[in-house]
Structures are given as C-alpha cells and as structure tokens.
Amino acid sequence: MNRIIAPSILSADFNNLGTDIEMINRSEAGFIHFDVMDGVFVPNISFGIPVIEHVNKIARKPLDVHLMIINPDPLIGSFVKAGASIITVHYEACSHLHRTIQHIKNFGVKASVCLNPHTPVAALEDIIAELDMVLLMSVNPGFGGQVFIENTYKKVRQLKSLVEKNNPDCLIEVDGGVNYETGKKLFDSGANVLVAGSFIFKSNNPEETIQNLKIL
Ligand code: DX5
Ligand code: ZN
After folding, report:
1. CATH number of the domain residue 173 falls in
2. CA 37 to ligand 1 centroid distance, Å
3. Can you list the alpha helix ranges (DSSP code H) found in the chain?
4. Ligand 1 atom nearest 42 alpha carbon
C-alpha cells in the first residue's frame, strides 16, 4: 500500500496560511490534516469549520479532518459541507461509535476512528470491518511538538495484524511526534499514513521534508 504524508496545519503559520497550503499543494503530501479541538475532549482549542471552508477553496489534496471533540455526530454534516474527505472521530468520545461511523459514511466520505495512547487496538475488533482508516495517537492529543510515545510501534503492529485479517484496505495513520527516526520505524511497523506538524513546518524546507518523509 502506498505511503502518505499528511501535514498537520496545527503547526502552520496562520498569518500566512494560504502560503503554507500552496506549499502542501506543490508537495508530495497525500492529505492535509486538520486537528480540530474543542477544549473539552482535549485541553486546547484549535480551529473549526470556517478555517476548513477557506482552505478547501485553495486545497488540491484531500482534507483529513481529525475531530478531537466530544459528541461529534451533530457536526459531521457541517464538516463534510466544509470539504472534509476523511473524518476521524475518537473512540473515547463516541458512546455509539458504530452509529457514528454509519452517519459519516452516509455522507459519502471516508470514516476513521482514532485511539488515544491508552486505548488498546483490540477495542476496534468489532468495528474494524466498517472503517476506511484508523488513526493511532502517538502523543496525548491537544498539542503539537510533543514527545513520541514508544509504545505506539507495538500498537501499529497489532493494528496491522487486525487490518490484514479483517479489512486489508483500511489505512493505518499515526499522529504525533513524527520525524525521520520515528517515521521510518512507523512505516516499518506497518503504518501507511504519517501525520506531521512541527517537524514539517519548523524545518528549513517543509516541501523537501515532506518528500524525505515519504521515502523513509
Ligand atoms: C495532537 C495533534 C498533533 C499534531 C501533530 O493533538 O494531533 O499530534 O497533529 O503534531 P506534531 O507533528 O507537531 O507532533
Ligand atoms: Zn491529528
């Protein structure tokens, strides 16, 4: 399965967001990753639908929307209307996850579930067949620039086995603390999609960094 780099705009320059989106458009990135935070499910507030709507006007890559919010169901339609191609909800934020996944898929977009570092991969056994992607958090959600949690490699291997048995087309995405070292080990462990924010946007040449991440 091909390797995808998903730059997280959480670390972009919001005073020049259009410039950063044009860079991603030119780059070998496969997705644009949006970290939406509500200040309740995670201890931070980031941005929401207006930002995604505006980026969607100039974006030439699929919008990969990571909802770190409680009770996402009522807002799914608005995120789809804003331009989301993939919507990720948190396992820990959904009391009726199967219904939420069906709700997302009914809009004709891809449905994904995210697991926080403490949530075991086995929690997905009875829903993995319904998913287009699984996002594994390799940091505690809420902030960019955090230290990578080493246990994530084991979870990627476990998820790879679950996917191979139940849903071989399901993508494995990892988010948090991705750099050249962790990224290579993640690809080697079975991840297909790497989300990177600070490592890309704080580098001297973000477009080159994206290209280098892709060929790790
Ligand atoms: C955490 C965010 C971050 C972000 C990537 O809630 O989801 O993981 O996307 O951050 P970096 O790549 O800077 O660790
Ligand atoms: Zn994210």
Report:
1. 3.20.20.70
2. 11
3. 17-26, 49-58, 76-82, 97-105, 152-166, 180-189, 198-201, 206-214
4. 6
